[in-house]
Design a protein that fits this description.
- It is a single chain.
- The protein contains eleven helices and six strands.
- The protein is an alpha/beta fold and about 300 residues long.
- It has one domain.
- The chain has a four-stranded mixed β-sheet with strand order 1-2-6-5, covered by helices on one side. A two-stranded antiparallel sheet has the order 3-4.
- The longest helix is centred in the C-terminal third of the chain and has 30 residues.
- About 10% of the residues have low confidence.
- The structure holds zinc ion.
- The site of zinc ion has 7 residues, from α6 and α8.
Length: about 300
Amino acid sequence: MKWRGRRQSSNVDDRRGQSGPRQGLGGFNPLLLRPIIKLLFSKTGLFIVGAFLVISLLMGKNPLSLITQFLGGGLPTTESSAPYTPTAEEEELANFSATILANTEDVWNKLLENYREPTLVLFTGSVSSACGSASSAMGPFYCPGDEKLYIDLSFFDDMEKQLNAPGDFAQAYVIAHEVGHHIQKITGISEKVQRMRGQVSDTEYNQYSVRLELQADFLAGVWAHHSQEMTRMMESGDLEEALNAANAIGDDRLQKQSTGRVVPDSFTHGTSAQRMRWFKKGFDTGDLSQGDTFSANPL
Ligand SMILES: [Zn+2]
Protein backbone atom coordinates (compact mmCIF):
# COMPACT_ATOMS: atom_id res chain seq x y z
CA MET A 1 0.00 0.00 0.00
CA LYS A 2 1.11 3.54 -0.66
CA TRP A 3 -0.02 4.92 2.68
CA ARG A 4 2.95 7.01 3.85
CA GLY A 5 2.69 10.77 3.98
CA ARG A 6 -1.11 10.80 4.08
CA ARG A 7 -3.36 12.34 6.72
CA GLN A 8 -3.42 10.60 10.08
CA SER A 9 -6.58 10.57 12.15
CA SER A 10 -6.73 12.61 15.35
CA ASN A 11 -9.28 10.12 16.74
CA VAL A 12 -6.55 7.90 18.18
CA ASP A 13 -6.37 7.27 21.89
CA ASP A 14 -2.88 5.91 22.52
CA ARG A 15 -3.01 3.92 25.77
CA ARG A 16 0.04 1.79 25.08
CA GLY A 17 2.02 1.07 28.19
CA GLN A 18 -0.80 2.20 30.43
CA SER A 19 -2.42 0.17 33.12
CA GLY A 20 -5.26 -2.07 32.04
CA PRO A 21 -8.21 -2.82 34.25
CA ARG A 22 -7.65 -1.96 37.93
CA GLN A 23 -9.04 -4.70 40.07
CA GLY A 24 -7.39 -4.01 43.39
CA LEU A 25 -5.25 -7.10 43.69
CA GLY A 26 -2.08 -5.14 44.37
CA GLY A 27 0.38 -5.55 41.56
CA PHE A 28 -1.14 -8.76 40.31
CA ASN A 29 -2.98 -8.80 36.97
CA PRO A 30 -6.12 -10.94 37.34
CA LEU A 31 -6.12 -11.72 33.62
CA LEU A 32 -3.10 -13.90 34.28
CA LEU A 33 -4.91 -16.02 36.84
CA ARG A 34 -6.37 -18.54 34.41
CA PRO A 35 -3.16 -19.25 32.46
CA ILE A 36 -1.26 -19.52 35.77
CA ILE A 37 -3.74 -22.00 37.23
CA LYS A 38 -3.59 -23.97 33.99
CA LEU A 39 0.19 -23.89 34.13
CA LEU A 40 0.27 -25.04 37.75
CA PHE A 41 -1.66 -28.17 36.84
CA SER A 42 0.60 -29.01 33.92
CA LYS A 43 3.88 -30.94 34.08
CA THR A 44 5.84 -27.69 33.74
CA GLY A 45 3.81 -26.28 36.62
CA LEU A 46 4.64 -29.19 38.87
CA PHE A 47 8.27 -28.73 37.94
CA ILE A 48 8.13 -25.00 38.81
CA VAL A 49 6.45 -25.67 42.16
CA GLY A 50 9.07 -28.34 42.85
CA ALA A 51 11.83 -25.90 41.93
CA PHE A 52 10.39 -23.30 44.31
CA LEU A 53 10.33 -25.84 47.13
CA VAL A 54 13.94 -26.83 46.49
CA ILE A 55 15.12 -23.20 46.25
CA SER A 56 13.26 -22.23 49.41
CA LEU A 57 14.77 -25.18 51.26
CA LEU A 58 18.24 -24.19 50.08
CA MET A 59 17.69 -20.54 50.99
CA GLY A 60 15.95 -21.36 54.23
CA LYS A 61 12.92 -19.26 53.25
CA ASN A 62 9.21 -19.87 53.39
CA PRO A 63 8.23 -21.14 49.90
CA LEU A 64 5.01 -19.10 49.91
CA SER A 65 6.76 -15.81 50.57
CA LEU A 66 9.22 -16.65 47.82
CA ILE A 67 6.36 -17.25 45.36
CA THR A 68 4.62 -13.98 46.36
CA GLN A 69 7.91 -12.19 45.91
CA PHE A 70 8.26 -13.72 42.47
CA LEU A 71 4.68 -12.87 41.45
CA GLY A 72 5.01 -9.30 42.71
CA GLY A 73 8.27 -8.59 40.97
CA GLY A 74 8.23 -10.82 37.94
CA LEU A 75 4.83 -10.25 36.39
CA PRO A 76 3.33 -7.22 34.64
CA THR A 77 1.53 -4.98 37.09
CA THR A 78 -1.65 -2.95 36.62
CA GLU A 79 0.16 0.23 37.67
CA SER A 80 2.64 1.79 35.31
CA SER A 81 4.16 5.21 35.49
CA ALA A 82 7.03 4.95 33.02
CA PRO A 83 6.22 6.44 29.58
CA TYR A 84 5.86 3.83 26.89
CA THR A 85 8.68 3.75 24.39
CA PRO A 86 7.61 1.87 21.28
CA THR A 87 10.09 0.27 18.90
CA ALA A 88 10.46 1.81 15.46
CA GLU A 89 8.41 -1.04 14.05
CA GLU A 90 5.58 -0.44 16.54
CA GLU A 91 5.63 3.27 15.78
CA GLU A 92 5.34 2.49 12.10
CA LEU A 93 2.29 0.30 12.80
CA ALA A 94 0.73 3.06 14.94
CA ASN A 95 1.23 5.61 12.15
CA PHE A 96 -0.14 3.14 9.65
CA SER A 97 -3.26 2.48 11.76
CA ALA A 98 -3.90 6.23 12.23
CA THR A 99 -3.56 6.71 8.46
CA ILE A 100 -5.98 3.88 7.63
CA LEU A 101 -8.45 5.19 10.22
CA ALA A 102 -8.26 8.65 8.61
CA ASN A 103 -8.93 7.05 5.26
CA THR A 104 -12.00 5.21 6.59
CA GLU A 105 -13.21 8.60 7.90
CA ASP A 106 -12.84 10.14 4.43
CA VAL A 107 -14.71 7.26 2.79
CA TRP A 108 -17.55 6.95 5.31
CA ASN A 109 -18.02 10.72 5.51
CA LYS A 110 -18.61 10.58 1.78
CA LEU A 111 -20.96 7.58 1.90
CA LEU A 112 -23.01 8.39 5.00
CA GLU A 113 -24.67 11.62 6.05
CA ASN A 114 -23.67 12.85 9.51
CA TYR A 115 -21.11 10.07 9.97
CA ARG A 116 -19.97 9.85 13.58
CA GLU A 117 -16.24 9.04 13.56
CA PRO A 118 -15.14 6.28 15.93
CA THR A 119 -12.04 6.41 18.14
CA LEU A 120 -9.18 3.95 17.79
CA VAL A 121 -7.69 2.87 21.11
CA LEU A 122 -4.17 1.43 20.94
CA PHE A 123 -3.31 -0.66 23.96
CA THR A 124 -0.79 -3.18 25.18
CA GLY A 125 -1.69 -6.25 27.19
CA SER A 126 -5.09 -5.41 28.57
CA VAL A 127 -7.60 -2.58 28.41
CA SER A 128 -10.85 -1.34 29.94
CA SER A 129 -13.76 -0.51 27.64
CA ALA A 130 -17.46 0.20 28.06
CA CYS A 131 -17.87 -3.45 27.07
CA GLY A 132 -15.74 -4.64 29.99
CA SER A 133 -12.06 -5.37 30.28
CA ALA A 134 -10.24 -7.27 27.58
CA SER A 135 -6.83 -8.80 27.02
CA SER A 136 -4.98 -8.65 23.73
CA ALA A 137 -5.40 -12.41 23.44
CA MET A 138 -9.00 -11.69 22.39
CA GLY A 139 -7.79 -9.89 19.27
CA PRO A 140 -9.02 -6.52 18.00
CA PHE A 141 -12.61 -5.62 18.82
CA TYR A 142 -15.21 -2.88 18.52
CA CYS A 143 -17.22 -1.78 21.54
CA PRO A 144 -20.64 -0.34 20.57
CA GLY A 145 -21.04 1.08 24.10
CA ASP A 146 -18.27 3.67 23.66
CA GLU A 147 -17.98 3.52 19.84
CA LYS A 148 -14.29 2.71 20.00
CA LEU A 149 -12.07 0.22 18.18
CA TYR A 150 -9.49 -1.52 20.37
CA ILE A 151 -6.28 -2.92 18.94
CA ASP A 152 -3.08 -4.23 20.46
CA LEU A 153 -0.70 -3.75 17.52
CA SER A 154 1.05 -7.03 18.33
CA PHE A 155 -1.99 -8.67 16.72
CA PHE A 156 -0.60 -7.68 13.32
CA ASP A 157 2.55 -9.57 14.17
CA ASP A 158 0.45 -12.60 15.12
CA MET A 159 -1.41 -12.36 11.84
CA GLU A 160 1.84 -12.57 9.97
CA LYS A 161 3.59 -15.21 12.06
CA GLN A 162 0.80 -17.41 13.41
CA LEU A 163 -2.05 -16.98 10.97
CA ASN A 164 0.11 -16.67 7.87
CA ALA A 165 -1.71 -13.50 6.83
CA PRO A 166 1.03 -10.92 6.24
CA GLY A 167 0.85 -7.57 4.50
CA ASP A 168 -0.20 -4.01 5.23
CA PHE A 169 -3.44 -4.33 3.30
CA ALA A 170 -4.38 -7.38 5.37
CA GLN A 171 -3.89 -5.15 8.44
CA ALA A 172 -5.98 -2.39 6.87
CA TYR A 173 -8.71 -4.95 6.25
CA VAL A 174 -8.80 -5.79 9.97
CA ILE A 175 -9.20 -2.09 10.88
CA ALA A 176 -11.84 -1.63 8.16
CA HIS A 177 -13.73 -4.69 9.47
CA GLU A 178 -13.91 -3.15 12.96
CA VAL A 179 -15.02 0.16 11.42
CA GLY A 180 -17.66 -1.96 9.65
CA HIS A 181 -19.02 -2.91 13.08
CA HIS A 182 -19.14 0.81 13.89
CA ILE A 183 -21.23 1.41 10.75
CA GLN A 184 -23.55 -1.37 11.95
CA LYS A 185 -23.81 0.37 15.32
CA ILE A 186 -24.68 3.82 13.99
CA THR A 187 -27.14 2.45 11.44
CA GLY A 188 -28.92 0.43 14.14
CA ILE A 189 -28.20 -2.98 12.59
CA SER A 190 -26.19 -4.43 15.45
CA GLU A 191 -28.86 -3.34 17.94
CA LYS A 192 -31.52 -5.20 15.97
CA VAL A 193 -29.40 -8.34 16.11
CA GLN A 194 -28.65 -7.86 19.80
CA ARG A 195 -32.36 -7.68 20.55
CA MET A 196 -32.77 -11.18 19.11
CA ARG A 197 -30.68 -12.56 21.94
CA GLY A 198 -32.93 -14.53 24.26
CA GLN A 199 -35.81 -14.32 21.79
CA VAL A 200 -34.48 -16.96 19.40
CA SER A 201 -32.58 -20.19 20.01
CA ASP A 202 -28.82 -20.04 20.52
CA THR A 203 -28.25 -21.72 17.16
CA GLU A 204 -30.43 -19.16 15.43
CA TYR A 205 -28.76 -16.27 17.26
CA ASN A 206 -25.41 -17.65 16.22
CA GLN A 207 -26.62 -17.52 12.60
CA TYR A 208 -27.48 -13.85 13.01
CA SER A 209 -24.07 -13.01 14.44
CA VAL A 210 -22.37 -14.82 11.55
CA ARG A 211 -24.39 -12.63 9.17
CA LEU A 212 -23.40 -9.56 11.17
CA GLU A 213 -19.72 -10.51 10.87
CA LEU A 214 -19.96 -11.18 7.14
CA GLN A 215 -21.62 -7.80 6.68
CA ALA A 216 -18.66 -6.19 8.48
CA ASP A 217 -16.45 -7.92 5.90
CA PHE A 218 -18.68 -6.59 3.13
CA LEU A 219 -18.40 -3.06 4.59
CA ALA A 220 -14.61 -3.45 4.70
CA GLY A 221 -14.78 -4.29 0.99
CA VAL A 222 -16.97 -1.24 0.30
CA TRP A 223 -14.37 0.89 2.12
CA ALA A 224 -11.56 -0.60 0.00
CA HIS A 225 -13.50 0.10 -3.20
CA HIS A 226 -14.03 3.79 -2.42
CA SER A 227 -10.63 4.23 -0.82
CA GLN A 228 -9.08 3.02 -4.04
CA GLU A 229 -11.22 5.42 -6.10
CA MET A 230 -10.22 8.33 -3.88
CA THR A 231 -6.54 7.63 -3.19
CA ARG A 232 -5.20 4.82 -5.40
CA MET A 233 -3.42 3.56 -2.29
CA MET A 234 -3.69 -0.09 -3.27
CA GLU A 235 -0.90 -1.74 -5.18
CA SER A 236 -0.90 -5.02 -7.04
CA GLY A 237 -1.13 -7.91 -4.60
CA ASP A 238 -3.04 -5.89 -2.00
CA LEU A 239 -6.46 -7.35 -2.78
CA GLU A 240 -4.95 -10.81 -2.51
CA GLU A 241 -3.51 -9.91 0.92
CA ALA A 242 -6.97 -9.02 2.22
CA LEU A 243 -8.56 -12.09 0.69
CA ASN A 244 -5.80 -14.24 2.14
CA ALA A 245 -6.42 -12.68 5.58
CA ALA A 246 -10.17 -13.25 5.25
CA ASN A 247 -9.36 -16.82 4.31
CA ALA A 248 -6.87 -17.26 7.16
CA ILE A 249 -9.16 -15.90 9.86
CA GLY A 250 -12.36 -17.71 8.91
CA ASP A 251 -13.80 -19.84 11.70
CA ASP A 252 -13.05 -23.10 9.96
CA ARG A 253 -9.37 -22.28 9.53
CA LEU A 254 -9.07 -20.91 13.06
CA GLN A 255 -10.42 -24.01 14.66
CA LYS A 256 -7.63 -25.96 12.99
CA GLN A 257 -5.05 -23.48 14.27
CA SER A 258 -5.85 -23.97 17.89
CA THR A 259 -2.43 -22.93 19.17
CA GLY A 260 -2.46 -19.32 17.97
CA ARG A 261 -4.31 -16.39 19.44
CA VAL A 262 -7.99 -16.17 18.70
CA VAL A 263 -9.07 -13.56 16.22
CA PRO A 264 -11.40 -10.53 16.16
CA ASP A 265 -14.14 -9.61 18.47
CA SER A 266 -16.55 -12.51 18.52
CA PHE A 267 -16.73 -16.24 18.59
CA THR A 268 -18.09 -16.66 15.14
CA HIS A 269 -17.31 -15.03 11.80
CA GLY A 270 -18.36 -17.43 9.09
CA THR A 271 -16.22 -19.73 6.96
CA SER A 272 -13.16 -18.58 5.04
CA ALA A 273 -15.04 -18.85 1.74
CA GLN A 274 -17.94 -16.77 3.05
CA ARG A 275 -15.64 -14.05 4.42
CA MET A 276 -13.75 -13.82 1.14
CA ARG A 277 -16.97 -13.74 -0.87
CA TRP A 278 -18.52 -10.86 1.10
CA PHE A 279 -15.35 -8.78 1.21
CA LYS A 280 -14.99 -9.25 -2.55
CA LYS A 281 -18.63 -8.35 -3.17
CA GLY A 282 -18.17 -5.08 -1.26
CA PHE A 283 -14.94 -4.38 -3.08
CA ASP A 284 -16.32 -5.14 -6.54
CA THR A 285 -19.58 -3.19 -6.20
CA GLY A 286 -18.79 -0.47 -3.65
CA ASP A 287 -22.56 -0.43 -3.33
CA LEU A 288 -24.02 -0.38 0.18
CA SER A 289 -27.34 -1.74 -1.04
CA GLN A 290 -25.64 -5.04 -1.98
CA GLY A 291 -24.72 -5.87 1.59
CA ASP A 292 -27.87 -7.43 2.99
CA THR A 293 -26.26 -10.53 4.44
CA PHE A 294 -29.40 -11.06 6.51
CA SER A 295 -31.61 -12.07 3.60
CA ALA A 296 -28.86 -13.70 1.51
CA ASN A 297 -29.49 -17.39 0.96
CA PRO A 298 -27.12 -19.20 0.77
CA LEU A 299 -24.58 -16.97 2.53
ZN1 LIG B 1 -16.07 -8.76 13.62
